[in-house]
Amino acid sequence: MIAAAGAAGLGGKVALIERHLMGGDCLNVGCVPSKGVISASRAVHHARNSAKFGVVDGSGLRFDFDTAMERMRRLRADISHHDSARRFRDELGIDVFIGQGSFSGADTVEVADKTLRFKKAAVCAGARAAAPPIPGLEEAGYLANETLFSLTELPPRMAVIGAGPIGCEMAQSFARFGSRVSLIELGPHILGREDGDAAEILHRAFIREGIELQLGVKIIGVETSGTDKILHLERDGKRIDVTVDAILVGVGRAPNLDGLGLEKAGIKFDRTGVAVNDNLQTSNPNVYAAGDICFPFKFTHTADALARILIANALFMGRQKASPLTIPWCTYTDPEIAHVGMYEVDAKGKGIEFTTLTVPLSDVDRAVLDGESEGFARVHLRKGNLLLVYGERYYSAVVHVSKKRAGELYTRPAQTTQEDR
After folding, report:
1. Is 1 helix (H, G, I), strand (E, B) or coil?
2. What is the pLDDT of residues 113-147, one digit of tens each?
3. Last residue of a domain, one of 316, 331, 352
4. Residue 109 and residue 116: Cα distance in Å, rounded?
5. Any bridge partners for residue 96, and if so which?
6. Which of 316, 331, 358 is the last residue of a domain?
């Protein structure tokens, strides 16, 4: 949608082809509904833990799952007009086609019994939830992000397969709603791509909130017994059975390649998606790609940034590149984990020498008074660079005084002499 709106705004004649729902994953089954679920779960969690702030509820707290989900779906509908076919057609002057678009040649696309000829094309078909090849999973039935937000009844027991961002966010949310949640992960830790210390803080929070963590396990299979779904796990040669009412799969994304006819346009692709160069150009020089279908960082804001690069390169013979992008991301658990730039493991992998500055939130008055002092802020600084961090009571500096002292860390009270400063 960013590519189409941008090209139309610059005077291009644009056709936008969507085979399912305008707005894609973000609006319909991703960012928007997940934030509605997360906000509801935080509200009920804060209400249950408000006694320390002096809140006394003599009547007892009751949570209605159906009301929370109805609110999310209603607000999603209110937001949806921004992404509607009517807005793109009537306000932006774009020809909108609802149906499966498929390349029929190097410069043609077929959709809704019409053949569209193009000078430039953009493949932005996104990705979908991937399901692991677990015996019996398909037969037992499972939820993914495409179906989770249509629930009207809270599953009493839920297994979440995959402890990445989606799995952790939804595991915590449904546990706060009242489900007995088992979070199942092949690796030894939750959020394996995040800072280990940050993930450990969230690990402890999950334990406190009653989430059962099954880490470092292999799922042997799934079977059904009546309405029960039984997951057979194995850890260190020992069998573990987990019985639930619903299974949520959140183990990654698979590109939407089916039905696009990419081979007819000479566009190279594999199971990971469409192949592009650093300018987002495919093997067909007149076709570009952006978003989840071609990029490893599958975020809405990343797709937005790539679309802007695509417009510049496709319409103005630009040479903008995707590789210099610095990708921020946030996992909306409680506490949240957000980062931008390199993690420690990334810097070490590139042989970059760095100094680390960590400030615990327990040193931040606002965090203490809000009752949210568990966590920290952390900066990794390339040695030899200058960083000044000013606060209410302290400033810190990583200074390049000499080769011998480069990267040395100083933390001093603000009441220092001018010479010290």
Report:
1. coil
2. 999 999 999 999 999 999 999 999 999 999 999 99
3. 316
4. 5
5. 16
6. 316
